[in-house]
Amino acid sequence: MIIQGNSIINKIDRNDDIIYVLLAGSTEISKIPGISAAGENSELTFLTPVLDSEIIYSGKCISYDVIPMTENGIPTPSIITRAANLVSGVDILIVDAGFYESPKIPYLHTKLGPANDPRKQEALTKYDVAVETGRYIGRMLDKKYKYIVLAESVPGGTTTAYMVLRSLGYDYMTSSSMKSGPDQLKRKVADEAFQRYKPVNNAMDSMIQYGDYMMALATGISGAVRNSTIMYAGGTQMACVYLLDKIINKSHEKRYIFTTGYIINDRGDLLSDIAGGNIIYAKTNFSGIQGLDYYEQGYVKEGTGFGAAFGIAYVINKNENLIYDEIKKVYNSFL
Amino acid sequence: MIIQGNSIINKIDRNDDIIYVLLAGSTEISKIPGISAAGENSELTFLTPVLDSEIIYSGKCISYDVIPMTENGIPTPSIITRAANLVSGVDILIVDAGFYESPKIPYLHTKLGPANDPRKQEALTKYDVAVETGRYIGRMLDKKYKYIVLAESVPGGTTTAYMVLRSLGYDYMTSSSMKSGPDQLKRKVADEAFQRYKPVNNAMDSMIQYGDYMMALATGISGAVRNSTIMYAGGTQMACVYLLDKIINKSHEKRYIFTTGYIINDRGDLLSDIAGGNIIYAKTNFSGIQGLDYYEQGYVKEGTGFGAAFGIAYVINKNENLIYDEIKKVYNSFL
C-alpha cells in the first residue's frame, strides 16, 4: 500500500477534479543561520520559493542558472512534485505568499513580501490583505474543483509553525528540512519572539505575531471554500494551518492533511493530535535514485506537498513506476 | 429590450457559470499623442490598465490617488464594469497582458511588459510565451466555467487592431475612445509600420508584427478552451481577436462578441462582417448620470467589456435600475 491513513483518497479518480495550489513565499526567519536547509546558504533560502515555483510550473530554474540543491547536494522536493503533477495531469496554480522576487512564470501576484522576523516585530503587517486575498482565491476555486490541494514552499516555515503551535499550547517540536532538526535553535528563536510579544492563546493573533503569509492565505482560502475538499499538502507546517483553520473558521468538514511517510515517522504524533483521523500519507521510496536517496536517510521529509502530489499521481494512474521514472527524468534534466 | 443580437444570452442564468477575465496591458502605440484618450495625457495611458484593474477588483484606485477620467472629465468604463460585476456576482480574474507596472491587487502575473511600437520594431517579442500563458489560463478555466468573458484594457488597442485587421485584408476603420476617432493618424501609423514590415496576410505574423499581448493571450486561451463558451467582451479590438482566433484556432463554435449598442451604431458593419450572427450587445443609456452622460454623445463606446458586464448583470437580475444605481454609487465614490 502506497497510500494510507484515510479512505477519502479512494474517492479521487479524475484529475479534472483537482487543483494543486502552491503557496510560495519567504520569511526573514529563514535567514537565521542554521534554521533552514532549503537553499545553498541562508541568504539563498529567499530564492527557494521562486525557484520551486519555476520548477513546478515549467520544469526549469529560469531566474537563476542553478541546480536546485542544498549545499550537501540534496535536491529540492519540487522536483518530485513537478514529476508527479505531470503524471497526474492536475491543474496547478502558483500563489505569491510573500515572494522576495517575482518568478518568471505565470502566478497569482499579491506583493505581500516576506514575513518579518517575529523576534523584532509583528510578522504579518499585511495580515488583513493576505486573508482577503485568500478568500478571493477560495471563492474562485470553490466548487470548480472537488479537491483543492494546498502546498507550501516557505523556508523557515517549520520555525514559524513551531512558534504558532507553541503559542497555542501545542508544545511539539516541528519537522525540519534537516536530518537532525535545529530544535534548540527553534526554541531559542521562539523564546525571543515570545519575549517581544507574549502569546495570548489567540489563533489570529499568533499568526500575525509569529506566522507567515502562507498561513494567512491558507486560512483565508479555507474560510471561503464551502463545497470543495481541501487537502493540506505538507507536514508540520500544514498541521499548523489545519489547526489555525479549525480554530478560526470553525466548521471543519472536508479538511485533510496529506503528507509523506517520512513525516508520519518523524512527527505523526503532532499530526494526529491536531487532525485526528483526517490524515493521508504516501509511502514513497527513493532508494537508488541519485540525490533523492538522501530522502530515505531523513534529510527531507516534506516540501511543496510532494507526498500529496505523489499520492494523487498514484491514485489516478495506479502505476508507481511511471511516477518514479518521471521523477528520474525531471531530476536528470537538472544535471 | 436591453440585450439583443443572439439568443445564446437567454441560456445564461447562473453567475456561478461565468468568469469575467480582464486582459489588461500596454502598447507603446498609446504614447503617440492623439491616439488614445484613455488617460489624462498620452504618457498616462500606460497607467490606465493598472488603474482599471484596481477599480474592477477593489472599486478603488490604489496605486495613484487620481480620479480615473480623461482630460475632458470622461470617466473610465471600468466604473461601469465594476458596478455591473458587483450586481451579477461573477468571479473575476485580472490578467497581466503587458502591464507597465504592477497593480496593487491580486492578479495573474506574466511580466510580458508593454508591446513595442510596430513602426520601429516587432511588436510582440515574447509572442510564444504569451500564447503558452494563454493556453495555461485556458486549460485552467475550461469546463470550470460555462462562460468565459474575455475583456480588455489596452489603450492604443484600437490602433493595433486596425493594423492587424488591415494587414489581413479587413480595411475597416476601428472604433475609438474619442468622439471623432483619429482615423487619419491610425492610417499613418499603420502605413509606417507596414513600411518597416510588409504584411504577408498571415494572422500569427500580423499579431507578432503589429499587435498587442492582449491578442496573443486571448488566442492562446481560446486555443485551449474546448468546452466552455468564450464571449469576447469589447468592440473592434475584440472583433479583431475573434478573427485571429477563427484563423489560428480553426474550429470556431461557442465564440461570440459581446459589445455595446454604441459599437453596433459605430462599427456594426465590421463586427458582423467578421462574426456574422455571433454578436450580442447591451443597449445602455447613461443620460442624466453625471460624467457618464458623455457616453451618450459617443465619447466612449466600449472598454473593459462594460457592454457584456452590464448585459450579464441584467440577464441574471432582470433589474436595470439596480445596475444603474450601483454604477452611480461606484461613480460617486470617486468624486
Set down the secondary structure blueprint.
The structure is a homodimer of 335-residue chains.
Chain A: E1 3-4, E2 18-24, H1 48-58, H2 78-88, E3 91-96, E4 107-109, H3 127-141, E5 147-153, H4 157-167, H5 183-196, H6 203-210, H7 213-224, E6 229-233, H8 236-248, E7 255-260, H9 261-275, E8 279-282, H10 293-296, H11 306-317, H12 320-333
Helix pairs in contact in A: 1-2, 2-11, 2-12, 3-7, 4-5, 4-6, 4-8, 7-8, 8-9
Molecular structure report:
The structure is a homodimer of 335-residue chains. In chain A, helix 9 (261-275) links the parallel strand 7 and strand 8. Chain A has one domain (3-333): 3-Layer(aba) Sandwich (Rossmann fold), CATH 3.40.50. The first copy, chain A, has a seven-stranded mixed sheet, sandwiched between helices. Helix content of chain A is 42%, strand content 12%. The two termini of chain A are 32 Å apart. Chain A is built from twelve helices and eight strands. The mean pLDDT of chain A is 94. Chain A is of the alpha/beta class and 335 residues long. Chains A and B meet through strand 3, strand 4 and helix 3 of A and strand 3, strand 4 and helix 3 of B.
Helix share, percent of chain A: 40-55%
CATH architecture of chain A: 3-Layer(aba) Sandwich
Most strands sheet of chain A = 7 strands, mixed
Number of beta strands of chain A:
8
Number of helices of chain A: 12
Strand order of the largest sheet of chain A: 1-8-7-6-5-2-3
Q: What's the CATH H-level homologous superfamily of chain A?
A: Nicotinate-nucleotide-dimethylbenzimidazole phosphoribosyltransferase (CobT), large domain
Mean pLDDT of chain A: 94
- Order of helix and strand elements from N to C terminus of chain A: EEHHEEHEHHHHEHEHEHHH
| Beta-strand fraction estimate of chain A | 5-15%
Specify the oligomeric state.
Answer: homodimer
Structural class designation of chain A: alpha/beta
Number of domains of chain A: 1
Query: Low-confidence runs of chain A (pLDDT<50, min 5 residues)?
Result: none
